Amino acid sequence: MFKISLKLFTWKARIQQNGMSALYVESYISGIGPKADRKQFNLNLEWPADKIDFGKNELRQRFKNDPDVNDYNLIIRDHISKINEIAKRFRLQNRILSNEMVERELLYFDASRSLVAFMQLSRRERYASKEIVKRTYMNHLSTINSIIDFRPLTVFPEIDKKWFADYRNYLKSEIRENGRVVKKAIQDNTIWTRIKDVKAYLAIASEQHGIYVPEFGPKEVKNSYHKKEAVYLRKEEVIKLINKLDEGVLGTQDYQVLSAFLFCCFTAFRISDLYESTYQWMVSDNFLQFLMAKNSENKPKTITIPLIPIAKRFISNNNGKFFNLPTEQEYNRTLKVFMKECGINKKVTSHSARHTFGHLFMKFGGNILALNKILGHTKIETTMTYAHLDDDDNLDLALKVNDEFSSVFKLKSVC
After folding, report:
1. What is the pLDDT of residue 255?
2. What is the pTM of this model?
3. Nearest 10 degrees: CA dihedral of 55, 61, 67, 69?
4. Using an 8 Å Cβ cutoff, are 253 and 374 in contact?
5. What angle do CA 386, 392, 393 make, to 5 degrees?
6. How far is it, in rounded angstroms, from Cα 144 to Cα 187?
7. Which of the residues 64, 122, 259, 355 could staple to 314 if both were Cys, CB 3.0 to 4.6 A apart?
8. Distance separating alpha carbons of residues 9 and 41, to the nearest angstrom
9. CA-CA distance, 263 to 350, in Å (whole number)?
């Protein structure tokens, strides 16, 4: 097991001309390898070098009734105490401690009680290390903001089943003040996402930082996902949108949004991939190859999909990118306007384009295995939810079999 010793430290070679010296706490860790691990942690304080008691790890008064000495010594003791607390936690968990870990844990120390502070810090670190992508980074901010609106001073020990129940009820509720809505009720699947995010950060706090989370465990909090019926467009509805695009009356941004949506209807692009799409993805005139944004931090997957002629007509060159799009919120708001103007009475979102591709692909003779590959799904069961075929579609496909044998009956009638 490791051993750690801490002491007040200054660099003698760096004492200033006025006798002032920067103060550090030196951490010396041994027992973790052939060489000891030594690091100095800057306290961002200065004090006369000849007024430092290194034996007691404290500062002496610069003059009688020095007003700062007690506060400065409190800061020193607090910093040493934090590192000792970190070391104690690592010993109890039978984990090896290095000064690199100490430095990281010090960042989290003040966030070890506050849920909001911890999530803010951990979110930034995960994004910087590319553990999460920008879209996830922004979505997690929405979850943090919802907790700030709910209970900004939430501390880890109070996060139990009742806290989750209260949080869920808060998200579901509509709040009015003076007859005006100040908070809208959130849909079930957004609530599911918020709770999933909180549980993920609680797991990080407990497993990676040893922060106490109540014994009930986040896994015991039930968080059922409510599957909504997928929305997709039929051929005639897609044609309405193409005709609208061809009217030539749309502004630049609206034209980009509608072009991008139609492009996705013929390529099955996710919105996360759409925003990253560039001409570099074109490996030939007929194929696109790219690393999917979804799960790229945990399970990176490169897929190759067909680029059919009708999809190409919607692409424009925007400094190498396929499209120049507004925020996702504005993108979806604009889609709602288009649907209303085209008489399409469906709750269409960006993801509806992906379902539209699945419907069109299967309707016009595609097979589920090919669709599975294009959509980039791991499980065929997931792909099945995109194969939107009704009775009329099934009849059309069955008639194609009939057509293949129609010539046989013609020959018999001639004989």
Report:
1. 95
2. 0.56
3. -10
4. no
5. 40
6. 17
7. 259
8. 9
9. 11
